[in-house]
Structure formats: C-alpha cells, structure tokens
Amino acid sequence: MSDLAALLDEIAERARRQPERGRVASYIPELAGVDPARFAMSVATADGQVHSTGDADVPFSIQSISKVFALALALGRLGDQLWDRVGREPSGFAFNSILQLEHEKGVPRNPFINAGALVVTDAVLGRHPPREYLGELLRFVRAAAGDDAIHINESVARSELATGHINVALAHYLLAHGNLTNAPELVLGAYFHQCAIEMTTAQLARAGRFLIGAEGMPRLVSPERVRRINALMMTCGHYDASGDFAFRTGLPGKSGVGGGILVIAPGRAAIAVWSPGLTDQGNSKLGTEAVERLAKATGWSVFG
Ligand code: GLN
C-alpha cells in the first residue's frame, strides 16, 4: 500500500503549488483566520490502514460534515419517521437558502442543507437538553474514529452563535411552519456546537469508516442505512455543486465550510481532505480537486 502513500504525497505536492486556492469562509469570524495554505489528506482503507499526507495532525472545524453523524444518530433514534419532516432530494440552492424553505413551506429538501440539518438536530434532541445530545453525538463520533480526544471548539461555536443570523432566520421559519419542536435557541445552540467539532483528517477518515460498508469496519448503523446515507451524500452532500462533485469523483462526499470533505469509496475506503479555501458554493476547492485526482488514480468509483 506504499503506492497509496506515494500518491497522497504527490497530490499534496500538487496542491501546495496551486496559486488559486479559493476563499476561506469569513462569515464565521473564528474561521476567517485559518491559513489558506493548509492542506491535508488521509485515507482509511478497509484493510485497517490509514495513510496521510500534509497537515494531517492539525485539527480543523468539520462544520457541515457533522450533519452526516447527526443524521446517522437521528435515523438510529427515530428511524424512517424522520422523513416526515425532511426530504431527500438535491436542493439546487445555496446551503443556507431561505427562499427555498419559503417555497417548500418549511419542509427542507434534504438533511444536509442547513434548514434540513436544523430539523434533524431538533428531531434527535427530542425532549433532551442540548448537552445530552452533544454528549451522545461526540460519543458516536469518538466510537466511529476510535479516538476519545475528539472535541468541540467552544470559541468556534460561540463565534457562530454571535453571527449566525441566517440560521436563526431558518430556525424561526421552521418553527412558524410547525417543523421545529424545541425553542429555536436550543436547536441553534446544539447545531452550532455540533458544527464546531474539530478533527484532523486522520481522525475524520477513521470516523468515516462506518460508512465503507466492509467487513471489520465499525458497525454503528445497519447496512441499509449505510447505503442510504451514502446515497444522500452523493446527491446532496455538496449543495448546489453535488452534481459536479459526483461527476468529477464518482464518489459520495460531504463538505463543510471549514474546508473539509469526507468521501466514501464503498467497500474500499473513507477519505478525508482539508484545504480551507472554498468555491462560491462553499465547498473546498483544492479538496475537491484532490479527491478527483485520487479517484482517477485508484479507479475508486461507485459507477465502475
Ligand atoms: N455552521 C455552518 C452554517 O450553518 C455550516 C455550513 C457548512 O459547513 N456548509 O452556516
């Protein structure tokens, strides 16, 4: 498997030389100061190995990648009832679109846009205090990664609490349409904290192994749910650039505005990449290019 290690180094080297890196998210002030020159990539393969390159020991804010873990938890707790409150179609709109939510009368298109993720967090919160939910989510992520050091960055959470006005608007809009059962402040607090989970790419790749669907990998959800979560990542994981990501990589992936992407090569590997510069749609620019390169070189694709 040293081929894979060499390939990762080659991809990182190419990324290092790229002058056009996209723009670091600045609407969450705490993220604005992240160095755009950072780059890391890790691959956890189904045979139990983890290969990394670049800044793979530097933690970053996983942001919307947390929606994958929250969804897995919510499905475990509520099962298919969840689909009464949130759809499973690609959005074709920005991740924080208010327009679309209004159009669809408070039922978000999918669990990976912000409105959908707020509904998922509300559903899994149930009547429990946010602290309990966050504890459970962290336990899930730590069990998936096999790493108890994974934590929430309180400053990032607070930074978004102070500036996340669009999410506040979305939560209130959901409430107005009867699609929020808890007070908006509770749901938003829980959501901002879940987004503020920090991981290195090595930890994130390991945390993604439960979605590989191979023997010997952590079994945190049923095989049927693994398939469905992967399907949603493929169709909705990159918002209005989901089609482009699928076209370029042939693999399901979920991005976050911290510049991370979690990608699954079913039966083979979980891949985590981090490059903080984003495209206009809020997805990691060089991260996407790196996954495209890896998929091409390995032949990993759900489409054969
Ligand atoms: N916390 C971010 C937000 O709600 C997550 C968005 C993202 O990563 N795409 O705006």
What features would you describe in this structure?
With 304 residues, the chain is of the alpha+beta class. It folds into 2 domains: 162 residues, 3-Layer(aba) Sandwich (Beta-lactamase), CATH 3.40.710.10; 133 residues, DD-peptidase/beta-lactamase superfamily (Beta-lactamase), CATH 3.40.710. The protein is 47% helix and 12% strand. A hairpin with a 4-residue loop joins strand 7 and strand 8. Helix 5 packs across helix 8. It is globular, with a radius of gyration of 18 Å. The two termini are 21 Å apart. It binds glutamine. The site of glutamine has 11 residues, from loops.
Q: Which hetero ligands occur in this complex?
A: glutamine
How would a textbook summarize the main sheet? 5 strands, antiparallel
Kindly report the oligomeric state of this protein. single chain
Count of the separate structural domains: 2
Briefly note the structural class of the backbone. alpha+beta
* Shape type: globular
Name of the CATH homologous superfamily of the largest domain: DD-peptidase/beta-lactamase superfamily
Alpha carbon gyration radius: 18 Å
- Cα(first) to Cα(last) distance is 21 Å
> Secondary-structure element order, as H and E?
HEHEEEHHHHEHHHEHHHEEEEH
